[in-house]
Amino acid sequence: MNAFGSDAAAASVAVEGPPDAPSGKPSISQGPDRIAVAWCGPPYDGGCMITGFIIEMQQLPTAAPNVECDELTDGESGGWHEIATVVDSLAYTVKNLTPNATYRFRVRAKNVHGCSAPSLPSDAVELQAQEVSTEDFHRPISVKSGGDFKNRFEVLEELGKGRFGVVYRVQEREEPRQILAAKVIKCIKAQDRQKVLEEILIMKSLQHPKLLQLAASFESPREIVMVMEYITGGELFERVVADDFTLTERDCILFLRQVCEGVAYMHTQSIVHLDLKPENIMCHTRTSHQIKIIDFGLAQRLNMKTPVRVLFGTPEFIPPEIISYEPIGFQSDMWSVGVICYVLLSGLSPFMGDTDVDTFSNITRADYDFDDEAFDCVSQEAKDFISNLLVHRKEDRWTAKRCLESIWLTQEHDENLSNKICTDKLKKFIIRRKWQQTQQPPQRNQRTQYYSNKSNNNNSKNSAHPCPVRHCMGAYQRHFG
Ligand code: ATP
Ligand code: MG
Q: By residue range, what is the domain housing residue 374?
């Protein structure tokens, strides 16, 4: 302060460092002259993106495959040799190994700050010249089965409930006794189980500080448990309406930039989230401005050659192409980002109608405006940002990468961005969403009631439309949660 008055600014500092070691021990499957090694990402990435994994191998004397690592000293490294570095993958195939030799593997994670400690070593495997079918050998990383989860973790308390699972805070029973979150999903039917396994595979392939990280998964006949990093900050929208938080447009820029960073990364990995909504954006801790995108339950890997149509989502946030059952694309997520941004700045839901049918009709017409007084203090750059996302034709919408280059997300110094945003309407929005969530009975089979038509016909306009919206509005109301 000085004689003319005072001013204040807040800053949050993220302390970054090398990542933790990859969780658990790598799993291995062997072929005639090769071994496939698969592992889990680290429970904590050190605060920034994992840039790769280093695979190390140790050859054990064949006569003593079960000796402990400490007993096998070969200089400083204990006989461990670095054999490869991989990026964007949690599996590696080691080829040209000597038959009848015994090996173990361990993995380190690295980010820009350095390399983690090694993971636990894998079980020792003796390479036997045996016939293994290619199908077996290339099977995707499978989750560990058995009642392992209860043995390894103590369940502390419930953190949240979704349509499909209950999320608990859990603690490892053994050192380092980490606190993690475990999503327990009941799935008795093979179809449901397959969907959860797909969610696990997708999470395994996504390693980014803005996306929730999976540490391990456990499978039993009735349920699958996904053990994930524990996020302590609660839902973003709940945090910004709290009494101790003053929401400004600058905060919104900070949050939306992170959402776009996470989404841009996901899209570079060919994955579309398809359920971006406020409840799925959480704060890393109670005091930080760092966010994490969670819930990959509806996420899909897209391949540009095969059009995919879906019939699910949350009515207020879904794009027109889902309602009209046209092929989705990466830009389908960007519509939802536009809706989230609109709500965060104004507390109003741009397309919300009295019924889902009204909502769908507003979305289909891309019928929204900035007329409400809530937008009086919102900058033109913010409105332009939203206007480039709430565009009917998905091809004309901004991509996440384009958003990151937008004037709105790149500016910081405009004084008006410090104006306090009134969050009264946002509080009402949150209360309504919570109430709506309690109205939906958690039916797991809703997840499998999706309609994904992987036809080879690229021309959606001319393709036979198996479920036009005007014919099945009732069905939509049942399908959408
Ligand atoms: P949905 O109905 O949103 O599709 P879902 O069954 O797939 O739900 P999630 O959205 O993954 O479940 O989780 C449900 C709730 O649990 C979240 O809204 C959040 O409040 C809480 N939650 C989920 N993951 C974590 C985590 N890693 N740390 C802390 N809380 C979490
Ligand atoms: Mg959710």
A: 236-479
